[in-house]
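Quick start: what a row looks like.
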Amino acid sequence: MALTTSSLMTAVFCLLVVLPVSKARFESGRMFDKYGVLPVKEENARLDNLAAQLKKEPHSKGYVVLYDGSDHRIRDLKARACRDIQHLIARRSVGSNQVVAMTITGGHREKFTVELWVWPLEASDDLPRFQLGLDEKEVSIIKGVEVTTKCGRRR
């Protein structure tokens, strides 16, 4: 009987303590901004706002999520993601551990869309993929710490 009581207490503990903590972390990200095709100057201003927010919240991580859209006007999502990450790190001095870009293909949006998200620093780099219900094959992730190897050096 003691084994059964112990097992029951463990199960109750997991339901009451462990699962709510995991769910709270999962849902703790928030969308910061959303936009479509913009002139570079205007897009940089949006990224600057994200950089300022990350400096206010040093225990947070910024995600730049780029959707290709079905209009296919933006051909090279990776180059766009690299440019955005490099802007945040090199021009706005955001820590490379605080920036992640995700490019998403597969027609999840009608038009090219950029979403800027803020998540806790300890969140998994592909956490937004799970929240958005995306398949792993449709997502490419570029971490800020990998920007030189995945994007090349900025000129």
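That is the whole record. The chain is about 45% helix and 20% strand. The beta strands are 30-35, 60-67, 99-104, 113-120, 139-143.
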